Amino acid sequence: MKRPIVLALNPSMDAEWHVDGVRWEEKNNITSEHRWPGGKGVNVARWLTHLGTKPLILLPLGGATGRELAQGLAAEGIAARVISIAEETRVNVIVTTRQQGQLRFNPPGPKISRREGQRILSALRAELPRARCLILSGSLPRGLPPATYAALIKLANRRNVPVFLDCDGEALTHAAKARPFLVKPNEAELVSWARSVGLKPGRSEKEIRRLALQLARVTQRWVLVSRGGKAAWLVHGKQHHAVRAKPPQVKPLTTVGAGDALLAAVIASVLRADDFPGWLQKGLATGAVATQLPSGTLPK
Predict the structure, then answer these.
(1) How many whole angstroms separate alpha carbon 17 and alpha carbon 9?
(2) Alpha carbon 192 to chain centroid distance?
(3) Whole-structure pTM over 0.85, yes or no?
(4) Which distant-in-sequence residues (6+ apart) come within 8 Å of 241 by Cβ?
(5) CA 122 centroid distance within chain
(6) 29 and 296 in contact (C-beta within 8 Å)?
């Protein structure tokens, strides 16, 4: 049976520390700590599972943190294929205060050796014949070249496996040219991409639509621009579709993982063959739900 394949190249354990406030040059007491399997690709896989679309996640893991992450996925019933690596899996730290908002600290993560990179590629090649789609989400780990996602998209395209992409920076600039089925940048990532290709970006509604269409002309396919509490855009590079929708107006408890929840709901909607305005509406609704939950948790 075919199923979505999520490739999470730089996963993490996420640790949230609750503090009353942050005082510089002083001791800050942690009132509670919560840990869960995280990183963008893992977040997408967890939400896909919650939404009833059972994925397989491929991920490189190393050390005690890697074992903790694998155990967390197993406890949630998420099918995973682990590629062992020498260096320790990273821990992302979120500091949540009562009044000052959140601070996030993301280490770069382990360096992937050439041999480990080849084992990851072999694992993906073995799974692609059984893939309904491929999800590439998150940063590239050290040791892998910026064009890694572009090469993986070309590999999937040759097998007629649609690719959903969520990355930024140089990796996005390369990967967009390989024509993934759908790219989901947020507003800041879209503006950064525009600068990287010599465009002069603005932040108005008209400018965001223009930049989304520019990126879609490169991919020749779908681009979904998420913008937090502001209206999102879904555009197509060849079919002249441009749909705008506002998310539900809620007061967020956290924004951690909201974009990943949005992407998972869009993927689930695409796989159900919903119409494309429905992709956007379901994605925005699910992203809004994620902002109402404690970090790292899913709805009951």
Answers:
(1) 25
(2) 17
(3) yes
(4) 234, 235, 276
(5) 22
(6) no
Q: Say how far apart CA 85 and CA 112 lie, in whole Å.
A: 7
CB 288 within 8 A of CB 259: no
Sheet with 102-105, strands from edge to edge, namely 30-38, 12-19, 90-97, 102-105
Closest CA to 47 of 234, 263, 224: 263
**Please, what sign has the CA dihedral across residues 10, 94, 52, 81?**
positive
Three-class DSSP category at 209: helix
**Integer CA distances (angstroms), 89 to 62, 103, 120, 144, 148, in order:** 5, 21, 15, 15, 20
Token reading at 177 = 């040219």
268-282 average pLDDT score: 95
Burial 70-91 (b: 16+ CB within 10 A, else e): bebbeeeebebebbebebebbb
- pLDDT of 118-128, one tens digit each? 999 999 999 99
User: What pLDDT, on a 0 to 100 scale, did the predictor assign at position 91?
Assistant: 97
For residue 101, what are the CA distances in angstroms to 95, 181, 286? 8, 35, 22
Residue 210's alpha-carbon distances to 191, 193, 200, 204, 245, in angstroms, are: 11, 13, 11, 10, 16
User: Which domains does the chain show, CATH number per domain?
Assistant: 3-291 (3.40.1190.20)
Helix 187-196, helix 205-219: angle, nearest 10: 60
Helix (H, G, I), strand (E, B) or coil at 59: strand
**Dihedral sign, Cα of residue 143, residue 147, residue 148, residue 149:** positive
